[in-house]
């Protein structure tokens, strides 16, 4: 009966390692856990400052956990990992590992967690990932992955975290993502995704964090987003989204802490319903084409600590709110005519309105006078 043994040797900046066969020897080495047959069941080498290439693993077919994150491993991952059907967890993030995704990874019926973020993996996302149906976390952030998001991703109904940010994905977000009913963190930030934001995202009733920023998405914000009642952070900045902000966004008031819609093409007035976001801490509406007044309801945003409405067409009085009063002057530049007590702004004169209702009130007054005539 053979088992695996960890060998460490100094390599200057890091420590290199290899797994050697040791007939009849126990494997009581740090980071190595055996099963009852003395086969390696778990390899845990997290943050050990290790370097070199990964050796062949899972040759006995009993490995269930392979964690080697925060090291200095380089080169291709071992091809033996592809056939490791017993594996349940793969954490290799923060190394310099490489290989084509389709060649390095297979279909793992028991896999629940995989994180290969911050490496140099390449190739396209295969539809085979949809067959790893026990996955609860899939994180591929910061790699050289290309192609499209396969619709088969919708088969991962146990998925709770999906992070495909900062790679090179293109095409539209498949509507099948809306089938991931357990998902609470969806991060597709910093890709080349295009097309509309799918209405089906409104089906993600457990979603707490949604980041679609830094893509080429267009069209309006889907109104069904209000059905994501647990949403805490909504980041749609740096896209080509247009239209007005649906007032339904104000229905996210129980949980929402971050709303970033900056650097888009939104128009129209800022809806007063945003004042219902009582937990909101960070609001960025800058670099759009919003017009009219900042709603007086914003004075109710008692949790707000950061605000930016620069580069719009806004006018009138700033709300009497701590975040507005303490904001940097840059938060208000390039607008039509904001006034108030914040730094660098002119004080409002007697004709300046503190809310958007006064202007509308004039319209009602004209109608009443004309009716009397």
From TrEMBL:
Give the transmembrane ranges: none
Gene Ontology CC terms: membrane
EC assignment: the record states: 2.7.11.1
Give the GO molecular function terms.
ATP binding; protein serine/threonine kinase activity
Q: Which residues form the signal peptide?
A: none
As for membrane topology, the entry says: Single-pass type I membrane protein
Give one Pfam hit by family name: LRR_1
| Annotated catalysed reactions | L-threonyl-[protein] + ATP = O-phospho-L-threonyl-[protein] + ADP + H(+); L-seryl-[protein] + ATP = O-phospho-L-seryl-[protein] + ADP + H(+)
| Top-level taxon in the UniProt lineage | Eukaryota
Keywords, A to Z, come to: ATP-binding, Glycoprotein, Kinase, Leucine-rich repeat, Membrane, Nucleotide-binding, Phosphoprotein, Receptor, Repeat, Serine/threonine-protein kinase, Signal, Transferase, Transmembrane, Transmembrane helix
Q: Where would you find this protein in the cell?
A: Cell envelope; Membrane
What protein does this entry describe? non-specific serine/threonine protein kinase
Upper taxonomic classification of the species? Eukaryota, Viridiplantae, Streptophyta, Embryophyta, Tracheophyta
